[in-house]
Amino acid sequence: MRRPPLVACAVLIGLTFIVAALVSRKADATSTTSVVRVTERDFHIGVVHGRIRAGTVIFRVTNRGPVEHEFIVIRADHGLPMPPDGITLDEDALEKSIVDAVEPAPAGETNVLRLSLKRGRYEVVCNMFGHYMGGMHARLVVQ
Ligand SMILES: [Cu+2]
User: Fold this and answer.
1) Contact 56, 116 (CB under 8 A)
2) Ligand 1: centre distance to CA 2 (Å)
3) Does residue 62 contact residue 112 with C-beta atoms inside 8 Å?
4) For residue range 66-107, what is the model confidence (pLDDT) as tens digits?
5) Are 126 and 38 in contact (CB under 8 A)?
6) Contact call for residues 59 and 36 (beta carbons, < 8 A)
7) DSSP at 83
């Protein structure tokens, strides 16, 4: 049996590396998807994964009640400013930092919010009257 020429072997190995590199680059280019489970209750927001990878982030927000709660994702690299009235965040002032939100949902409901998040620090809050100051905020780091 003839041995395959050395050049053919080298080309084959080279091609393997190129294909592997292309596949891994494609994997990087298609953004990752993270699912973040969030539980809201009076007056707390529980985030299962506080650190996630940049890309598509699917929040599954469940309100355990007993009252309605909303869910707002805010870019907050330097934290959030104190509420001007000491109780509620000024959403108009934060407009540029607010990524998206789930409207107030009744107890027992689960809402899904699909976002594309860049690296950075975020706060997820419920800003219904008194809820933010009551403790409804949690940090989320996107890396
Ligand atoms: Cu709330």
Assistant:
1) yes
2) 75
3) no
4) 999 999 999 999 999 999 999 999 999 999 999 999 999 999
5) no
6) yes
7) P
